[in-house]
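so the lab meeting is tmrw and i was supposed to have these ready like two days ago... anyway. pasting both below. for each one the top line is the aa sequence and the line under it is the structure tokens. i havent really looked at them closely yet so no promises
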Amino acid sequence: MTLEELRKQIDVLDRQLVDLLNERARAAQMVGQLKAATSLPVYEPNREKIVYENIRAANQGPLPDIELTHIYERIIDVMRALQRNELASQRNNAQAAAASEPGLAAGASPPETGKG
């Protein structure tokens, strides 16, 4: 293969990686939503340990395990940030909804209407 052909192949692979990383990010956002709904923490070291074990087991080279692990550490950092942003967004939406009902955010009951 020529240098140009190899670079075109790398460009195609890069686009595939982008697609896969975005697919992984969407899955991480959904995980964040589930964690929020079930009050689970964003950071789960045991899960991350399993991810690293899985990628090392799947690695057939030429990347050394340690380098692949470094790449995944960064990917996981970004995915964790997405989950935190998802949780913050949900909290902000809940606070905004409560604030849009004057008095309700402080625990007051809505005024009764009609004849009593």
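ok protien two:
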Amino acid sequence: MQIRSPKPTRSRRLFAVRRKASAVPIDLRILILRRQRVILDSALADLYNVPVKRLNEQTKRNRGRFPADFMFQLTPRENQSLRSQFATSKIGRGGRRSLPYAFTEHGAIMAATVLNSNQAVEMSVFVVRAFVRLRQMLAANVEFTARLNELEKHLETHEGTIQEIVTAIRRLMNPPPGRRRKIGFALPLARTM
């Protein structure tokens, strides 16, 4: 009979963290608020495997490490907009009672250093990679949009040219009705008498 210690070994913990990180769609948790890519405190706490309360507590204790471009609190309007998207519980029925915080890429890294846990440090690498992937996707999207606009301009110029050609062909197909001259010799009216 083999007796195991209740505490998992370091290698098992690392494997569990990596498995969880690969299963969690970090890219989907990154939102764009106030023209910045951010991750909400609840998603970040879930990734770092700490309660949201503890994450917010540590950020308040170390407020000097979180300037406005690292972390900001959502307005009630932004929160309401996100609540309708996420379908969370109503206030007073066991849901969140305070406005959530949003962490930018640098704020998420700083939160890992403030939490001072191995899992937070390891997961911060995955968070940074997700932000980098998102940045690359947006850059590719901007390039794609620019090319699409360029093609649209070419199409508009070609469309005008094609429309002129079609109009000219229609004019040639239907000549304007005019006086048709009779074929043959016609005597002048004055000489016939």
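from a quick look at the 2nd one: The mean pLDDT is 77. Residues 11-131 form one domain. will dig more after coffe
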